[in-house]
Amino acid sequence: MDKKELEKNFNFALKAQKEGKNLEAIKFFEKIIKVEPNHFQTNFFLGSLYAQNVNFKYAIKFLSKAQSLNPKIPDVHNNLGRIYLRLGQLDKATISLNRAIEIKPNFAAAFCNLGLVNNKLGKIEEAINCYKKSIGINSKDGVSYFNLGNLYRENNDIINAEKFYLLSIKANPKFFDPYINLLNLYERTNKRDKLIEIIKSAESIFKNNITLKLVKGKDLFNLKKFREAIELLENFNFGKSEIIKEQVRIFIIAKSHDQIGEFEKAFKYFEKANEISLNINNKFFNKKKTLKMIEKRTNFFKNNKLKNWKQFNSKSKENSPIFLIGFPRSGTTLLDTILRSHPLIEVIEEKPIIENWIKEIQKEVDSDLKYLHNINENSAQKFRKMYFDLRNKNIKKNNVKKIYIDKMPLNIIYAGEILRIFPDAKFIMALRHPCDCVLSSFMQSFKMNDAMSNFLNLEDSAYFYDSVMKIWQLYMSTFSINQYTVKYEDVVTNFEKSINNILDFLEVEWSKNMLEFYKTAQLDRMINTPSYDQVNKPIYKKSIDKWKNYKDQMQNVLPILNRWMEKYNYS
User: Fold this and answer.
1) What is the value of pTM for the model shown?
2) In this structure, which CATH number among 1.20.120.1200, 2.30.30.240, 1.25.40.10, 3.30.450.40 belongs to the domain 3-201?
3) In 178-329, where do the E strands start and end?
C-alpha cells in the first residue's frame, strides 16, 4: 500500500468512525495494519474502537503496540487504564493512568478514571481528590461530578450525593445519567416533590424518553395507582441494549398486578422478569457456589465434636458482637429500621464484614475449616481484632455507649466460624412463614450474586431455604448460642411486646422513638435492600400469609417447606 492509498483508507476509517460505524471503521484500519503494522495512529484508533466494542483482548493488543511505538502519548495510557479498570485489573489500571498524568499533568479524564480505580480499591479519600482535581481542570465536564455523586451515594452520604448529581446536571444538562441516579436517590429517600421536579426538568431536554416513563411508572406504583402504572408501562418496552431496564419495567407490572389481586398475571410477569435476570447473569454467577459452601460447613460441623477442640479465654476487650441474621425476606430490614430508631442502637446494614473477615482469616489458614480445631488464645485475639477493625470501618464514630448490630441475613451460614472465635456473640434470628419467605424472595429484584441467583425460580428458592435452615439447626444443636428468635408475624401483630423482648435480650431500655420507627426510614438515608419502599410506612399486615394467594403455583415446593412450617408452628 503506497502512501496515497494508506491515506485514503485512513480517511475512510476516520469518516466511518465519526459516523458511528465502528465495524466499518475497523475494517479500513485492519487493511492498513496488515501492510503497515507499525502505523501508530492506526494501532491507537483500532485499540480504542475494539474497546468500545468490548473486545478487550484486541483493544489491549493494539493499544499496547501504540504505546511501544510512542510511549509519550497520554491518551494511549489513559485508554489502557480504562480497559484494565473494566477488567478489574486495578494495579495495571493505576500504573497506566498515573503514567498518563505524569506525561500530561492537567489530564482531567485520567484523573477521573483514576478516581474510579481508587474507589474500587476502597481508597475513598484518594478517589475524592482525583475527582476534584479533574473538576478543577475541567469544571464543565459533568462526569467527575457524577462519579463523586455515586461515591457519596455508595457511602450513604445522601446530602453530598444529591449535591454532586445536581452539579453534574448543571455542568452538562444533556448528560442523562445523573438525572436517573438523582431520581433513584429521591425515590429511595422518599423525596417525591424533588423527584417530580427533576422528571419535568429532564423531560424538557430528553423528549419522549422511555427511561423517564419507567421512573413515572415506579412513582405511580409508589402512589398506589397500580392500574395507571400498568397502563403506562405496558405501552412501551426496552430493547436488548437496555435489558436491565426492561426487567425493572416487568417487575413493576408484576408487583402492580399483585397489588390489585390479579395473582395469575402477576406470577407470569415475575417469571418473565426472573427469566431475563437468569439470561443476564447466568455467565457471571453460580447458584451452586453458596449451596456448596453450606454443604462444606454442614459436613464439617456434623463430623466434629466440639468437646475435643482446644479451649481459650472467650473474653474480648470489646463488647461481644451482635448479629441480625435470617433468611432473605424474613423481616430483617424491618427489624433494622425499628432498632436503629433507638438512640443507643446503630445497625450496620448489609456490609460484607463477615465475608471479608473470613477471607482475611483464610489467607492465614489456607481456606481450611480445620483451623477451627487448634485456635489458641493468641490466634483468637488476632481474629477478633480483625473483625472489629473491619466492622469499625463501617461506623462513622465509635461510641462506647452504643450497641452496634451487624445486619447481614446470610451471615447465618457463617455462624459456626463466628461462634468459634466469639463464643459469647449474640444473634437476633429473624423468622417468617417459610412459604412467604420463599415466595417473597422469588418476587424480588435482588442485586445479583451467587446466593441471590437461587431466587430466580420457586424450586431453587425453596431448596435454598431448606439448606440454610438445616445448617442453622445444626449450629443450634452443636453450639450453645446466645440467640433470640423473633417472628415477623409477631412484630406485625404485637409490636411493642415483640420489640421489648428484643430489647431485653440486648439489655436496652425501651425508647418511645421506636413507635414511629418508619420516620427513621424517611430521613436522609438510603435503604439498600428490596424492602426500601415498605419500611417507610407504619406496620401493616398485608404481607402475612401472602403465599396463599399463590397456593396453586407453590404446590411443587410445599413438600420441601412443610417440615419447616411444622418446626416453627406455621399453618
Assistant:
1) 0.81
2) 1.25.40.10
3) 322-326
